[in-house]
Specification:
The protein is built from 17 helices and no strands. With about 375 residues, the chain is mainly α.
Length: about 375
């Protein structure tokens, strides 16, 4: 493509839509007939609400087999108190966990820079905002090691080389803000996963290839006129072929599943690893399940939340991914307001968290950063098109 054509595409396709200067359905994909899509600001809010609610709703039953969830709760559909790490801290219902803490550091970097961020940008926030007392309370043991190494001054992009868990879901369940700052631009969302993800995992590792699915799906879901089908098609088009092959297999196996009970039974015959650290937290399992939940509920946020927390195994991560993608498409209209308020209340009580922003403050900060990015890009495009 010639440079002038590229600049014209930049100026007219993404920028005007993102800045509100175009029709709601100008993205070339037709929504469900009769449906009203949320605006971009509400899609940002839906994504953040979905991830944080998913984390807090799924955490009390994390690691449980689905049979135990069924026996104790039937179909779980509410926020519960819980304890992690056997540290005696009884968490208020709505309290999020380590994955959201990881995400909040990326969010802070984006809000402050008002642009896409690098591994070095996020590392700077680590060093400033992670509280010493948070170790063992809202972070995994390997994260304390990475933080110590980050203080040594080695390049931020090298830190992930020293993590033993290159295939984990660490990045895939946390990278939502990288999809949002690249709303409507899945290719750039993927680039940012491979850049920032090097804080946690080896360059181009399986963990990051799977994280790209989350960010690509969110960037696609924010596109005007997006549908669940168009989001999944973008993932299948853009992501690593080996990743796509496993996602396609999961989608095919679960094509006839009508509810979470059928879905989890189907996956129980595929993903059942035990006996190794983080056995149920590998990115391929978590993300494949999340994409299939998203397809099954057609992007409905509340239904994605309830399906995810009843899946068994890594319930908080599965739900954070499935509901984050769903919220980026659906907004929060299907979610009870009291759930959102309870997460905000619990965050206000959490003295270990690196940010006590409300869900709305978080989403609006990211949305403002995105609009600032587009404003600068539009000014550049207009200037160069006039040259």
């Amino acid at each position: 493509m010639k440079r002038r054509e590229f600049v014209q595409g930049l100026s007219c396709a993404g920028l005007y839509a993102g800045l509100g200067q175009g029709s709601q359905n100008s993205g070339g994909v037709s929504p469900v007939p009769g449906s009203v899509q949320p605006g971009l600001r509400e899609k940002f809010f839906g994504c953040i609400v979905g991830c944080h609610l998913g984390s807090s709703m799924g955490a009390p039953v994390e690691g449980w087999p689905y049979e135990r969830i069924e026996k104790e709760y039937g179909l779980l559909d509410r926020l519960l108190p819980y304890e992690h790490y056997r540290n005696g801290w009884k968490r208020e219902p709505g309290t999020t966990e380590d994955g959201v803490e990881r995400q909040k550091l990326m969010i802070t970097a984006i809000i402050e820079k008002k642009a896409r961020v690098t591994a070095e940008d996020v590392r700077s926030v680590w060093l400033r905002d992670i509280k010493p007392e948070s170790a063992g309370m809202v972070s995994e043991p390997f994260e304390a090691i990475l933080l110590s190494m980050a203080k040594s001054g080695i390049p931020a992009r090298d830190l992930g080389r020293y993590c033993d868990y290159a295939g984990l879901v660490s990045m895939a369940r946390s990278c939502h803000p990288l999809g949002l700052i690249n709303a409507g631009d899945p290719a750039s969302a993927m680039e940012d996963v491979f850049e920032v993800g090097q804080l946690y995992q080896t360059s181009n590792s399986r963990g990051l290839q799977w994280a790209a699915v989350t960010a690509v799906a969110i960037a696609a879901a924010t596109t005007p006129g997006a549908t669940a089908e168009s989001v999944i098609n973008t993932v299948l088009e853009k992501c690593d072929p080996k990743v796509v092959s496993e996602v396609k297999s999961g989608l095919a196996r679960t094509a006839e599943c009508r509810d979470v009970r059928e879905l989890r039974k189907t996956f129980g015959a595929i993903y059942s690893g035990t006996g190794v650290p983080y056995a149920f937290s590998y990115a391929n399992e978590v993300v494949t399940k999340a994409v299939c939940i998203f397809r099954m509920v057609n992007g409905n946020l509340k239904q994605a939340l309830i399906a995810g927390i009843n899946m068994g195994r890594d319930t908080d991560c599965v739900t954070a991914v499935a509901a984050g993608i769903s919220g980026a498409l659906d907004g929060t209209g299907s979610v009870p307001e009291e759930w959102i308020k309870q997460v905000d209340y619990a965050t206000g009580l959490n003295r270990y968290t690196n940010s006590q922003r409300t869900l709305r403050q978080t989403a609006d900060g990211l949305h403002e950063a995105f609009r600032e990015r587009l404003t600068k890009a539009k000014a550049y495009a207009d200037r160069m098109l006039s040259a």
